[in-house]
Amino acid sequence: MQVILRIKGMTCGHCVKAVEKALSEVAGVEKVHVDLASGTATVDASGPLDMGAVRQRIEKAGYELV
Predict the structure, then answer these.
(1) What is the pairing mode between strands 64-65 and 2-8?
(2) How far apart are CA 45 and CA 10, in angstroms?
(3) Domains along the sequence of the chain with CATH
(4) What is the three-class DSSP state of 55?
């Protein structure tokens, strides 16, 4: 299952790494690719994602799920 998320607040390569790390800690996530230019994260997961957990991880890292 692939999900594309819009993330607000990313401005640099460090932000990309922080978001990748945060999303990779969500249960079921297998692969994460963050695109700074578009402000999106593409997540490959083994099944449906717990969007509450996704939002919590993103916000804890200092960003906003749009």
Answers:
(1) antiparallel
(2) 22
(3) 2-65 (3.30.70.100)
(4) helix
* DSSP secondary structure string for all residues of 5-35: EEEE---SHHHHHHHHHHHHTSTTEEEEEEE
pLDDT averaged over every residue in the chain: 96
Q: Hey, is 18 helix, strand or coil?
A: helix
* Per-residue pLDDT tens listing for the chain (66 residues): 999 999 999 999 999 999 999 999 999 999 999 999 999 999 999 999 999 999 999 999 999 999
Report the Cα 14 to chain-centroid distance in Å.
Answer: 14
